[in-house]
Amino acid sequence: MAKKSKLESSGGTEIRGVDLVEVERLLAFMEKHELEEFEYEREGVRIRLKKASTQSGGAIRVVSAAELSRAEDMPSPAAKPGGAATRGSAAASGADLHLIKSPIVGTYYAAPSPGADAFVAKGARVEPGQVLCIIEAMKLMNEIESDVAGEIVEIFAQNGSPVEYGQPLFGIRPQAKK
Amino acid sequence: MFRKILIANRGEIALRVLSACKELGIATVAVYSEADRHSLHVRFADEAICIGPPRSSDSYLNIPQVISAAEVANVDAIHPGYGFLSENANFAEVCEASHITFIGPSPTMIRMMGEKDRARAEMGAAGLPIIPGSDGVVPDEDAAKKVAAEIGLPVMIKAAEGGGGRGMRIVRTKRELIPAFLTARAEAEQAFGSPNVYIEKLIENPRHIEFQVMGDRHGNVIHLGERECSIQRRHQKLLEESPSTALDSATRERMGRQVVDALRKVGYSNAGTVEFLRDASGDLYFIEMNARIQVEHPVTEMVTQVDLVKTQIRVAAGERLDDAVGPFQPRGHAIECRINAEDPDTFVPSPGHIATFRVPGGPGIRVDTAAYADAVIPPYYDSLVAKLVAHGRDRAEAIVRMQCALDGFVVEGIKTTIPLHKRILADPDFVAGKFDTHFLERLAPVEAK
User: Fold this and answer.
1) Are residues A122 and A104 in the same domain?
2) Residue B33: closest CA among chain A residues belongs to which residue?
């Protein structure tokens, strides 16, 4: 069984499953454009950064942590909708995506056991009831099933990372059952 | 000392626990329902984990979710606050099994004090005065006459299997006893399927007086004085103060000693409150014990200068009481008003968006709140918006400070009980210290159905 990833700490600020280097890049972006608050949502991924300018401690909150690699595409601030370059097609179809969200708090595992193949990969066709992943909670393995038929377009959670209630795990483009 | 604590609660008490952790240099983890996403305890905690949808049973009361969050965040201990899981012995046991320290009494103690009948029996056996009553069910008319003669009228006949006022009869004269006994049995049979009743002395116009206690894991127990909580509506406390105007120092000392002795005997640890009813002749009777930190704990903190929540954390970590509490001397008088999001006359709940929230300050004023301007009070949880506490050198100064603080507490957008508190503080009987648990009924005759 893969080790549970420990939450990383940086000067007292904890961010779940998110590379701090990427967060720093986002912050640099905010500084450059003199933004106080920055919210970014696409394909069910939502990140919100707010400068704690009047608070002591300067704590920064990351809401709904997800894969930050897509932050490289650095879309325009929330005021201007519309996408960045490379993932434009995915952004365009963002609205069609059915999100599978975690129903529990726990640790996300992509495969039934370490070394085994992942349950699903991007592009895979899934049917309702098909197991997509496991979330371990209190030493119990909970199988998370798809509730729709369709194609896996995005996998948001990282193997071995903690997930919270309501956190998006998969983005599925619904397609009629075969 | 703990490295990291998960706060299994919300609102003002979650913030309170968060401050205590911060002062002790302990990292904090908040858990929250979707309705509390923008709460202060979530924003100020070092980490925050969403554990469910708004309903308490799906979130704050969901043991697997809370424990899972504790494991995922790798915490050493959980502080349950008050309400929610704080008196859930099963939850305390699950924490232990998961190698997480539950900051509170042991599961055994929680269970003992949670079963009110059992608590009464155990505390009685440990030396506390309990309300005189029958030893269990009263089987027949002869037994009823005997019990009534022993404990003296007036008495209350109560159904053994239920409550809600059914199968209950007040008996003031000998003549009424048997007819009341028989009809109570008939009613109990109808309502609960069992005619069993027991008989208890009726305490008329009682005053509610409770003692704050603290125990460590080494068998030491102390009390930190009493609070008077007679200003209640339908058994919900609205205003509390310390010390009580009804206790003289001899009674305080005697009761305090009895409480500490009893709790040492049963092996109590961490925070707790021992509740009594005081009858017209001044006798105190144990009614129940709350095995947790209470809403009104700031009243005791203001008088003793002891941080009860920090002390809870320290004794849970194994510190001895002397070190965790330190020497203290009660000073002055403190009053707390519970500011609820309710109509002050009808008590109909008033959740919603807070447009203005101006909090009073100045010498001797403390406000515990998780509310702020632009916040939304959700409809899913209790209506407590803020606890306003005033301390003064004596009761008169505490009262005038509270009156001025209430005048300076501006809340717009929702209704609050602030106008009611102003009326209470202005009432001559309240100021004279002459009241009992029926005070509010006499003051506020207008109530919602």
Assistant:
1) yes
2) A165
Residue at which a domain ends, from A33, A68, A89:
A89
CA distance linking residue B115 with residue B127, whole number of Å: 18
pLDDT of residue B384: 96
**Mean pLDDT throughout A137-152?**
93
Residues A34 and A71 in one domain: yes
- Whether the CB of B198 is below 8 Å from some CB of chain A: the reply is no
**CA nearest B72: which of A16, A144, A43?**
A16
Q: What is the pLDDT of residue B165?
A: 66
The DSSP line for B355-390 is: SEEE---STTEEEEE---TT-EE-TTS--EEEEEEE
CATH code, domain carrying A130: 2.40.50.100
pLDDT of B143 reads 95
Tell whether the model's pLDDT for residue A152 goes beyond 80.
yes
Residues A79 and A116 in one domain: no
In the block, residue with structure tokens 């879309």? A75
The stretch B226-251 carries a mean pLDDT of 95
**Residue A58 confidence (pLDDT) above 60:** no
Asked if the B4-103 domain carries CATH number 2.30.30.240, the reply is no
CATH of domain B207-443: 3.30.470.20
> Tokens 């009241």 map to which residue?
B435
> Which residue range(s) make up the domain with A132?
96-174
Burial of residue B3 (CB within 10 Å: 0-12, 13-18, 19+) is exposed
Specify the domain boundaries for CATH 3.30.470.20 within chain B: 207-443
Q: Do B98 and A138 make contact, defined as CB atoms within 8 angstroms?
A: yes
Chain B residue whose CA is closest to A65: B49
The two tokens of residue B171 are 């008996």
ipTM above 0.85, yes or no: no
Which three-class secondary structure state does DSSP give residue B424? helix
A166 contact residues in B (CB cutoff 8 A): 34, 50
What is the rounded average pLDDT of the residues B39-65?
Answer: 97
State the DSSP code for A113. Answer: S
Please state which CATH number belongs to domain B141-201: 3.30.1490.20
Residue A4 forms part of a structural domain? no
Give the pLDDT confidence of B431-445 residue by residue, as tens digits. 999 999 999 999 855
